[in-house]
Amino acid sequence: MAQEGLLVSAFYILVFTAVLITYRVLRGPTLPDRVVGLNTITTKIVVIIAIVSVMRGEYYLIDLAIVLLMVNSVGGLILAKYMERRGGSGA
């Protein structure tokens, strides 16, 4: 029972911090700030999915979390490559 309370608390903390990071994604000021913010939010969502999976006993949701994490990683690499090319050609 205490573990469930801990998971619920972690869930709310992760949601709250993801909402705070949303400000950085929307307001910037730079593209790298937005990319890091978006990757951070996505990582928090993966952890939230894992917590919900454990709380509800629906462990197939962990597969969804793993896929989302892989998409997040590839997306981050693509955006980093884009920023590298954009920064290199503008100098």
TrEMBL record:
Membrane topology: Multi-pass membrane protein
Signal peptide: none
One GO CC term on file: plasma membrane
Pfam families membership: MrpF_PhaF (PF04066)
Annotated compartments: Cell membrane
PANTHER family noted in UniProt: NA(+)/H(+) ANTIPORTER SUBUNIT F1, NA(+)_H(+) ANTIPORTER SUBUNIT F
Keyword line: Cell membrane, Membrane, Transmembrane, Transmembrane helix, Transport
This protein's name: Cation:proton antiporter
InterPro entries reported in the protein's UniProt record: MrpF/PhaF-like (IPR007208)
Transmembrane regions: 6-23, 35-54, 60-80
Primary subcellular site in the record, as a coarse category: membrane
Gene Ontology molecular functions: sodium:proton antiporter activity
